[in-house]
Each structure stands twice: as structure tokens, then as C-alpha cells.
């Protein structure tokens, strides 16, 4: 298929989308739905989630590239996470470390933690 034909198909698809999908949903309904989803996400971040669930949600928001919409809520969680002890959970420790470091927090790796995990590796 040539570029010309692809361009026509792309335009047809866009026209179809604008005529059929957006007209049935309405642009206002899309905006309302987006605002509703953003508010639900804010509520989820503000609720008393356990730290692991909060870190996974923050990680997902960053991966999707929409974390900037929740800077205030994420900042509150990062403050909590800076003093949270993840114990012996390697996944929680690594995720906490990465989230805090990505946001510019000074986080010590902690040599005792490294030795703890290295000593648990089977020989």
C-alpha cells in the first residue's frame, strides 16, 4: 500500500472517529470522564493505602507519563516513604529506593541492607 493510500485511510479513520465516536460520546462527556478518573486517582492516593500499594500506584502513574497531574499527592507519599522501613521485602525496598531517587531525594543504600540480601542468596 502506498503512502497516498495510507494517508487516505488515516484521514478516513480520523473522520470516522470524529463523526461517530466523539459525536455519540460528546466531547463534554469525555472531559467529564477524564476529570472523574483523575479525581478517583487523587482519592486513591489520599486514602490510607498501605505503602506498597501507594508505591505501585505511583510507579504506574509515572510509567504512564501522567504523574505530573498528581505532584502534590505523590509528594505527600514520598515524605511518608522517606521514613518508612520496608523490612526484609526486596521488592518494596528497591521500589522505594527508585521512587525516592527519581524524585531527587537523597536515599542511602545502606550497607547493612545490602549484606542482608547478599547473605540470603543461596550458594
TrEMBL record:
UniProt xrefs under Gene3D superfamilies: Terpene synthase, N-terminal domain (1.50.10.130)
Superkingdom, taxonomy of origin: Eukaryota
Domain Terpene synthase N-terminal: 25-108
SUPFAM superfamilies, alphabetized: Terpenoid cyclases/Protein prenyltransferases
One Pfam family linked to the record: Terpene_synth
InterPro entries (alphabetical): Terpene_synth_N (IPR001906), Terpene_synth_N_sf (IPR036965), Terpene_synthase-like (IPR050148), Terpenoid_cyclase/PrenylTrfase (IPR008930)
PANTHER family associated with the record: OS04G0344100 PROTEIN-RELATED
Name of the featured protein: Myrcene synthase
Amino acid at each position: 500500500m502506498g503512502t497516498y493510500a495510507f494517508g487516505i485511510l488515516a484521514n478516513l479513520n480520523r473522520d470516522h472517529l470524529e463523526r461517530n465516536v466523539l459525536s455519540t460520546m460528546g466531547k463534554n462527556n469525555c472531559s467529564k470522564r477524564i476529570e472523574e478518573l483523575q479525581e478517583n486517582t487523587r482519592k486513591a492516593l489520599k486514602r490510607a493505602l498501605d505503602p506498597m500499594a501507594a508505591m505501585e500506584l505511583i510507579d504506574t502513574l509515572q510509567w504512564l507519563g501522567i504523574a505530573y497531574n498528581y505532584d502534590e499527592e505523590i509528594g505527600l507519599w514520598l515524605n511518608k516513604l522517606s521514613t518508612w522501613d520496608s523490612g526484609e521485602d526486596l521488592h518494596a525496598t528497591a521500589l522505594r529506593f527508585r521512587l525516592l531517587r527519581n524524585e531527587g531525594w537523597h536515599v542511602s543504600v545502606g550497607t547493612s541492607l545490602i549484606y542482608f540480601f547478599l547473605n540470603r542468596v543461596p550458594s
